[in-house]
Specification:
The chain has six helices and no strands. With 171 residues, the chain is mostly helical. It has a single domain, classed as Ferritin (Up-down Bundle), CATH 1.20.1260. The structure holds fe (ii) ion (2 copies).
Length: 171
C-alpha cells in the first residue's frame, strides 16, 4: 500500500473510494461482456456497423476495468476477485441480449451507458477536491461513456431512419 499516495486524500477515506470503485469495476466487466456477446449475436439491418461499434465499446469497457483495478490497488483495496461478485456489487446490472435485433440491442446498450454516466457523475461529486487522482481518472472514463451513448444513439437513429425510408418506398 502506497502510504504517501493515500495520505493526499482530503476528507475522504480510501476505503470509501475503493468501495465505490469496486462497484464501478463490476459494472465495467458486465458492460464488457454485454458488448462482447451482443457483437456476436446481433442480427438485422446494418448489423455490420453495429458490430464495429459494439466491439469498440467492449474494448473501451475492458480498458476502464483495467484503470479502475489499478486505482483500487493504489488505494490499498482489492479489486473484486470473483465474477460472482460482479452481480452483488453492480450498479447498472446486466441485461442479456435475449432479443438479438439490432435496434433492441442498441436500445439496451444506450440504457446501460446512461446508467454508467449517472454513476460516474456521482463519483465525481463525491471525490471532487478530495481525491484528485480518482477524480481525474473518472473524468476520463465519463467522457468515454458520454461518447458511447452518443455513438449508439446516432447509429440507432440512422437505422431507424433507414427502415422508415424503406417502408415509405415500398408503400
Ligand atoms: Fe466503461
Ligand atoms: Fe460505455
Amino acid at each position: 500500500m502506497a502510504k504517501r499516495g493515500i495520505s493526499i486524500l482530503k476528507g475522504i477515506e480510501a476505503q470509501t473510494v475503493t468501495t465505490l470503485l469496486n462497484k464501478a469495476y463490476a459494472d465495467e466487466w458486465l458492460a464488457y461482456y454485454q458488448y462482447f456477446i451482443e457483437s456476436k449475436v446481433v442480427k438485422g439491418i446494418m448489423k455490420d456497423a453495429a458490430i464495429t461499434e459494439l466491439t469498440q465499446h467492449a474494448a473501451d469497457e475492458l480498458r476502464h476495468a483495467t484503470l479502475i483495478s489499478g486505482r483500487i490497488i493504489q488505494l490499498g483495496g482489492t479489486p473484486l476477485l470473483s465474477p460472482k461478485d460482479w452481480f452483488t456489487h453492480t450498479n447498472c446490472g446486466y441485461e442479456a441480449p435475449e432479443d438479438a435485433d439490432v435496434l433492441s440491442i442498441l436500445k439496451q446498450s444506450i440504457k446501460g451507458e446512461q446508467c454508467a454516466i449517472s454513476i460516474y457523475n456521482g463519483i465525481l461529486d463525491i471525490t471532487r477536491e478530495k481525491d484528485v487522482i480518482t477524480y481525474d481518472m473518472v473524468s476520463t472514463i465519463l467522457a468515454d461513456e458520454v461518447e458511447h451513448e452518443e455513438d449508439l444513439q446516432a447509429l440507432y437513429d440512422d437505422i431507424h431512419e433507414f427502415i422508415a425510408e424503406i417502408k415509405k418506398n415500398i408503400q
